[in-house]
Design goal:
- By secondary structure, the protein is mainly alpha-helical.
- The protein is 71% helix and 2% strand.
- It has helices at residues 3-11, 20-54, 59-124, 129-151, 155-163, 171-184, 194-204, 212-217, and strands spanning 168-169, 210-211.
- Strands 1-2 form a two-stranded antiparallel sheet.
- α2 runs antiparallel to α3 (59-124).
Length: 243
Amino acid sequence: PSPLQNAVDTVVPIGKPCSAEEMANICAKFVNIRTATQATVDSVRAFLTDRQRDAKGHPVHAETVSKLQARMTSAQSELARATKVANDQEQRLAGEKMIAEARELTVALQDQVTTCTASAAPLIEQVGDEFLVAASVEILADTLRRHMREDDISEQDLFAQFSDGSETIDKERFVSFLEKLAILISRDEISFTEQRRQAIFKHLAHDGEVRVGDFREMFKRRFVCKSCISVTDIFEISKSRTT
C-alpha cells in the first residue's frame, strides 16, 4: 500500500475499544507514517508544479497534469482527515493523563493538608492554648533559673520547696505554691491566672503528679543546629583533625 493508505489504515482502529497504552501506540505510529507521507506529498506537489510549467502549450499533457493535481488534492484531504482523527485522540489521551495526574496531586495535597491541620491543631482548634501554655512554662523556667542562680540553690532544692519535702507534687500543692511564688521571689512575670497555673501543672505532670524528673525537664534547653560544622579534636584548626 501507498504511504497515504498506510496513514489512513493506521487511524482506522481509533474509536474502537482499546486500552490507553494501545491507543498511544497507534497515535505514535501514525505520527511516524504521517511524517513520511507528508514528505512524499511535498515531493509530488513540487514535481507536478514543474510538469505543469513544462506542459504549457501541450493540451494533452496539461490535462494529464491537471488530473494528477486533482488526485494530489484528494490525497491531501484524506491525509488531513486522518491527521485530525489522530490529533483529536492525542488530545483526549493528554487530557486523560492530566486528569489522572491531577487526581494523584489532589490525594497528595489532601495528605499534606491533613498533616498541616494536625500540626496546627494546637493553634487553630485549641485556640493556641497549648502554645501559650508552653510559652508560660518557658517564662516560669527562665524566672526560676534566675532565682536559683541568685539564691544559689539547686533544682532539687527548688523541687523540695514546691513539694514540701514529698517525692511528688499533686495539682493542689503545685497550683497553690505557684500562686504564692510570684510574691515570695518578687517576680511579677509569673503571676499567672488560676486557669493558667492549672494548665502549667497539666503540661508538666504525668499520671496526675509532677515528679522530680518532670520538674527538671522544664529547665532543659533545646537548640536547633541550622548549619553544619566539622568537629575537630583540638581548637587550633590548622593542626586539628576532624572526627
